[in-house]
Amino acid sequence: ANVMKTLLFTSLLLISLNALGQTQGSVTYEETIQFKINFDGNDALSKDLQSMLPSSKSTKKSLIFTERHSLYKTDDSDTGDEKLANQSGDRNIQIVMKRPENVIYQNLSENKVIEKKEFMDRIFLISDDTEKKAWKITGEQKEILGYLCQKATTVRDSSDITAWFTSQIPVSSGPNSYGGLPGLILEINKDDGKAIITATEIDLETDVSKAIIPPSKGKKVNRKQFTKIQKEKLEEMKLQYGGSGDGTRVFIQQN
Questions:
Q1: Distances in Å between the alpha carbon of 235 and those of 92, 117, 123, 229, 246?
Q2: What is the pLDDT of residue 6?
Q3: CA torsion 172→223→197→217, rounded to 10°?
Q4: What are the residues whose beta carbons fall under 8 Å from the beta carbon of 164, sequence distance 6 or more?
Q5: Dist. CA 41–CA 1, nearest whole Å
Q6: What confidence score (pLDDT) does residue 35 get?
Q7: Can you give the pTM of this predicted structure?
Q8: SS3 state at 112
């Protein structure tokens, strides 16, 4: 009887440890955005710019997480500026595709977000409360990398967002500051394919807890302040480069 009790206890302990193991780990994501250029109603210029760009761009990103907090960042090989140039008649067009090393830290236990974001060659440290979104869980299901996921929808910045999350990994986080669901988000679809973030690899074995460090360098602002700075700078850029005649420089900021 004692042997049976010991075996039962050991089995329960293993089950318990296995469950705990699923609340920390790392996920590799592929983030793909579709490029659509519309340059101030100038159809000819928009067409020229569109011909210079690929129809879409994919970036490798990673999320490391525990039950308490998470860190999402771009893979080092996918950072840095990519420059494209094209001569179209008497118009010289330059495109600088910004690929910054952005980092998003989510404190899941305190509902706080700290984002290190590069914008116009400056580093900002954006601190704010976690965005509260009303997710609608639809009941639809599908499998991603062997995990059963449920579909949830919401609206963010006037965009329709679809998330697929798995309660098999009971961590309320996800890519690109998405979260707030009863399970880890393995896929995000924005505006019916305009941007898609999908998990390509999951590792629940490696201990990542010591690697989750909040970013600390940059100009400290809240989300409202950063949005104001961003809007003002983009307006300045429009004035500076919008009608220069001899050359147009277009900056594409990839989030």
A1: 22, 19, 19, 10, 20
A2: 45
A3: -90
A4: 142, 144, 149, 150, 151, 152, 185, 186, 187
A5: 81
A6: 75
A7: 0.79
A8: strand
Q: In angstroms, what CA-CA distances link 34 with 59, 101, 230?
A: 12, 20, 22
What is the amino acid identity at position 103? Answer: V
The Cα 170–Cα 249 span in angstroms is 46
Average pLDDT taken over every residue of the chain: 81
DSSP E strand boundaries for 122-246: 122-129, 136-144, 147-156, 159-166, 184-190, 195-203, 219-221
DSSP 3-state percent helix, strand, coil across the chain (nearest 5): 25, 45, 30
Of the chain, the end-to-end C-alpha distance in Å amounts to 61
Residue 218, token pair as written in the block: 């940059």
168 DSSP assignment: T
Q: Are strands 91-98 and 247-253 parallel, antiparallel or unpaired?
A: parallel
**Cα–Cα distance for residue pair 76/80, rounded to 1 Å:** 9
Altogether, the residues listed in the chain come to a count of: 255
Share of the chain above pLDDT 70, in %: 69
User: Among all chains, which residue has been given the structure tokens 């089995």?
Assistant: 11
Most confident segment among 92-96, 130-134, 237-241, 250-254: 130-134
Residue 63: closest CA among 4, 122, 108: 108
Torsion over CA: 185, 189, 195, 201 (sign): positive
Question: How do 219-221 and 122-129 pair as beta strands?
Answer: parallel
Is 23 in contact with 212 (CB distance < 8 Å)? no
Structure tokens at 185: 């988000």
Which of the two residues, 215 and 43, has the higher pLDDT score? Answer: 215
The sheet carrying 159-166 orders its strands as 136-144, 147-156, 159-166, 184-190, 195-203, 25-34, 56-65, 69-74, 103-107, 112-119, 122-129, 219-221
